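hey so i finally got around to running the thing on that chain from the lab meeting. sorry it took forever, my laptop kept dying and i had to restart like 3 times. anyway pasting the input first so we r on the same page abt which one it is
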Amino acid sequence: MTTTLPSLSSEPWLKDAALRRVFDALAAAGGEARVAGGAVRNTLLGEPINDIDIATTLTPERIIAAGEKARLGVHPTGIAHGTITLVTGGKPFEVTTLRVDVETYGRKARVAFTDDWEADARRRDFTMNALYCSGDGKIYDPTKGYPDILRKRVRFVGEPAARIKEDYLRILRFFRFHARYGAGAPDPKGLAACIRYKGKLKELSSERVRQELFKLLEAKRASETIKLMAARNVLKMLFTPLAELSAFVRMAKIDAVQGLAPDALLRLILIAKSPFALREHLRLTNAEMKRLEAIASHTSPHPSLRDKERRAVLYRLGPATWRDQVRLAWAQSETRVDRTAWRALLDFADQWIIPRFPLSGQDLLAHGFKPGPDLGRELERLEDWWIASDFTENKETLLHKLEARG
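ok and heres what got predicted. didnt touch it at all, straight out
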């Protein structure tokens, strides 16, 4: 069945003045240029456009010359692989020479430059990523990706095993793209190839795995995709041990019903039985480890807390950890995802402004305390008193308690 390709000529992003300057610069140098990949795919899927990447028949040296002649910012960010970043109006555009892979080894490849658009398309991972759009909005589809976009089907370009062997990260990308853009069951040939080579995921760097996994965990179909990966023993190639997935599934439902932004780290905590081991498995950042430690070091808030108790707990936790703990506890509970009591508990962090403790070490020094452990303990005692008063004691009354004790 023949599917007529639409035109993107009316798309606002294609009329952007900065993009037009780049197109004009490349055309003036005698090259053909087209927007490639994600921007075309997302437009056809009705998804937001993030970056606009350009493919061209010009060699990297000629791209540089064209950019300099047009007085654009020129940055050879990936010249070995044919990529030059051109900047105009504060907007960067990656411009890459058409290429074919001569030899592949993971994220890197030895490439040869070409002027063959179909050859460039055949080296890409999925058909939905192998569409191009000219400056006048005409779409070029060498790998028949448009029917896959209409069906929301993630399909490898050519033979799935061949694409996967070029870079085993494409196994995770297959699941991530299915979770983000797919509908229905995954492409059976692609799924079979991913399962066949799943053991190769252990050979990938933690940083690359982490990047793909975090994007997958935030995708709109993350829940069912993660369940599929667990059932086919793909997930355990990334880290073990795995937790039972019911809380993760509930969090995804809660986020969807409540309009909460998906949080990859919180979802990961619900999947992993040993979250702290993830530092090594996935190279978690120091900030992420601090979040884990803060979550683990306190008892989670519960809707049964009275307002005074909520204020005391929120003061100790801080708003960020409060939200993390409530979202995790809500997912681990068996209450309905739209329960108003849990939502009210989550929103409490936005409704109560945490007061500042009115005393400092300097105040105690001024009242005769010497620097050292005793000063710190007394300050903590007075802060506990202040919290117990529901934050009503002021500086004067707290100092009076200090003097009365002395």
